[in-house]
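Sequence in, structure out. Go.
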Amino acid sequence: MTHTVPLTVVALYILALFGVTWWSRRLTARKGGLVGYLLAGRQLPAGVAAALLAGLAVGGASTIGVAERAYTSGFSAGWYNAAWAAGAFVLGLGAARRFRQMEITTVPELFERHYSVSGRVVGVVGQLVIQVVVTSLQYVAGGAILHSLVPGAFSFNTGMLITALVFVGITLIGGFWAAGLTNVINVAVIYVGIVLGAALTVGKLGGLSSLATRVPAGHPGFDLLAVGPGLILAWFIVMITMVHSTQSVIQVGFATRDARSASRAYLLGGALILPIGFISAIIGMAAAVLHPGIIPAKALPNVVLDLPPIAAGVILAGLWAADVSTASALLMGSATLVCGDVIKRFFAPQLSPAREQLVCRVTVALISVATFLLALTVSGILKALLIGLTLSTAYTLLVLATMFFPRLCRRGAATWTLASTMAAFALWLAAPASWRVLPHPIYFTWLVSLVTFLLVAVIDRRPIKLTSG
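Output:
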C-alpha cells in the first residue's frame, strides 16, 4: 500500500483535531481553575458529552481487539461493545442524575464526604491504578495501528510516540472542552472508517450470506454465543460495574450542564457505542476467510491493507481516532484524581484559579510520561483491559450503596472494602490457577467486595455522614 495517501488522510485528521483544540481554549478560559480545565466548567452539552463517552469506550480494544477475537470466535466477539453500551444505558437510566446533583469532581471525594479521609486516600490509589493501566494500553494500541498499516513510515515505538504527542497535546492545550469537541470529530471518523472497511470487505466476499458460508471449517461464524455464555456475562458484569465508578466515565456526567443532560449523555453515548463491536467483528470474520492462518491480532490490519489507498487512509484514521479519543478522556480523568484528591486536598488547597490550571497541565504532562513508560511493558490489550477494570467492583458497590442504601453503610466500609478488593485482585494475579473454578476475576472481586462490605456493616456500628455538603 502506498504510504502517501493514508499518511495524508491522517495528517489532515490531526490538523482538524488541533484546530478544534486551539479554538476550544476560549471555552476553557471562561471558568478558571480545576473545574474550568478538567470539567469544562460543568457546561458540556449532552451531545458533546455523549461523543466523549463513545470516544472513551471505542478504543483499540473495541476495534482491533474485537476483530482479533472474531477471527477465531466469530460475530459473538461484538458482545464486548454491547456490554459497554449496556453499562452506559444502566447508568443513564439510574445513577447518572444523582451523580450530577452531588456537584463533586471525583469518586474518592464522595468517599471522604460520607465515609472517611482514609477512604478517599485508598480510593485514589485504586482509581489511579485502573486509569493508568487503561491509559497505557492506548499507547500500545496506537503504536500497533500506525505500525501495522503504515510499516514503512512508523515503527511500533514511533507510532506510540506520535499517538502520545497527539492526545497529550489536545489535553494540555484545551482541557476537557477539547477532549469533548475533538471526540465529536473522532466518533464521526471512527464510524466512517469502520463502516467503510466492513462494507468494502464484505462486498468483496459477495455479502454477509456469502461470508457466513465461506468461513473456515469449525469457525463459529454468526453464532452469538460462541465466545461462551460465562465470558459474555463477565463482560456485562465488568462494564456495568465499571461505568458506575471509574473516574473517566463518571467525569463525563460531572461535566454536563445539569442532571438531565447527564442522563441523556449516557443514553445517547450507549447508542453510539453499541454497533461498533459487531461491525468490527464482521471485519475479523472476513479476515478469517481472506487471510487464513495469520496471527489473529493482524486480522483487521491485514484486511485494511487489501483496500484501495484512499479507503485504507480513512480506515486508518478511524482506527487511530478510536485510540486517541479513549486516551484523551482517560488522561483527563487521571489528572483530575491527582489534582483534586491529592494536590488540592492535601498540599495546596488555596491555589488561585490560574495556579490550579497550571498545576493541572503539569500533572497531565507527568502522567503522560509515566503511562508511556508503562506502555513499553504492556502486552495483550483486551485481556489486560478487562482484568484491570475488575478493581472497580468495590467502588461501584460503595457508590450505589451510598446513593440507594445508606442505612447499610458504615464509616469504615470505604477503606476496608476497597483495600480487601485490591488484595483479592493481587491474590488472583499472584496465583490465578487457584481460582480457575471462576471464569473471570470479576466474579472473585465482587464476592470479596460484598462479603467485606456486609461484615463491616455488622461489626462497625458508626453510620456514614448523610449530609450533602
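Check: The chain has two domains: 4-389, 393-469. The chain has a mean pLDDT of 86.
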